[in-house]
Amino acid sequence: MAGYSQNSRRRPSRHGAIHEVYNEPDLSWALAAPWDWYLQMYKAAAEGVREGGPNAEVIGPAMAFPVDVVGGKLHQFLNFVAENDLPLDALSVHAYGADNIRTHLAAAKAALASGPSSLANLPIHLNEVNVVGTAWPIARQQSVLDNYTVAGGIFATISDLVAELGVARVHWAQFTEPGANATLWGGPWGVVNLQGVVKASYNAFVVYNRMPLTQCTVDDTGSSVSSLAAGNGTRVAAAIWSDSDGATEITAGFDTLPFGSGVLSVYRIDADHCSFDNTQNASAAGLAAVETRVVRGSAGAQWTGVLPPRAFVYLEVNVGPQCQIKISIRQK
C-alpha cells in the first residue's frame, strides 16, 4: 500500500486521493473470515497509505449494514482504530433503499457518539446509495429505476441528506448499469444504460448539479408536491416533484428575484420528457427545456402547469439583459 500510495502521489489529483479499505467486509460474500482479519487488513493498509502519502485520506469500513451495537463490528472497528492510533478520515457506510439510508445513517452517527471520543466528530461518507433496496426483486427495482418517477425519489433523498450536517459525501450507486447478469450483480442501478443512453435518474442529477449552492425556503403548505430550491446572484432554481398518484395542477412562482429581469426555463421529467425508459427515444433522452421565456421582475417569474402522477419539473431563472434592443443595419 505504501508503494501504491507513493505512485498516486506522483500523479496528484485536483481533490487528493481517498483510499477506502475493502468493500462491505461485514458480508460473507465479501470477506468469509473472522472480523479481526479485516481489522488487521485495515491497519496494514491505513499505515501503508499514510507512509506513501502523508496527506492521503483513509476511510472505512465500507459496511453494508452498520449496526450500533456495543461490542458489534462497527464498535470494534472504531475502538481498534483509536487504540492503535490509526488514520481514519471518515466513516464510510452503504445504504440501499430510503428506509436503509435513514437507518444506516442513524447507526453510524450513534456509533460515533458512543465510541472513542477522539473519533466522535468524524464525517460520514455514504458512498454507496440508491433509492431501491438490494433485496428487492429485480422486477420491483426496474419498476422504480426504469421510470420517470425515479427523479422525485432521488430528490426526496437529496432533500433529506442536505439537512444532515455530519454527512460529507454521498455517492450514487452506480453510473453505468452492471451488465447482463442483473441477478448476480444487482439491479438496473446505473444512470446510463449499456448502450450509453442517459436515463431519467441521470437527468435528475444534472438538475441538482445546475442548482446553486445556497438553499432557499419554499412555501408549499397544503400542496401534494415537494420541492427543493436554491439561488445566488445570477440564478434561482426550484425542483418540484409530485407525491400524488393523480395529476396535479400547480402554480409555482419566485416571489423575489436578485435581478431585474431574466430567462425562465422549464424542464420536465415525466413519461413524455427526458426519460428514455418511458419514451424509448434516445435522441431526446437528455435534459432539455420544454419552455423558455423572458421574465421581468418576480411578477412574471412563475409557471402554471399540470404535473402527471409522481412527475418532476425543474424551473430555473437566469439573469438576463436589462433591456432587449433589436438592431438592423442595411447597406445601400
Q: How would you describe this protein?
A:
The protein has nine helices and 13 strands. With 332 residues, the protein is of the alpha/beta class. The strands form three sheets. A six-stranded antiparallel beta sheet has the order 6-7-8-13-10-11, with helices on one face. Helix 6 packs parallel to helix 8. The protein is elongated. Residues 323-328 have low confidence and may be disordered.
Record field, number of beta strands: 13
- Per DSSP, the total helix count is 9
Query: Strand order, biggest sheet?
Result: 6-7-8-13-10-11
Class from helix and strand fractions = alpha/beta
Q: Helical percent range? A: 25-40%
Uncertain segments: 323-328
Radius of gyration, in angstroms, nearest whole number = 24 Å
Q: How would you spell out the order of helices and strands?
A: HEHEHEHEHHEHHEEEEEHEEE
Strand content: 25-35%
Major β-sheet, in short?
6 strands, antiparallel
Mean pLDDT, to the nearest integer, reads: 88
Query: How far apart lie the N and C ends?
Result: 76 Å
The general outline is: elongated
Quick structural gist:
The chain is an alpha/beta fold.
Q: What structural keywords apply?
A:
single chain; 332 residues; alpha/beta; six-stranded antiparallel beta sheet; five-stranded parallel beta sheet
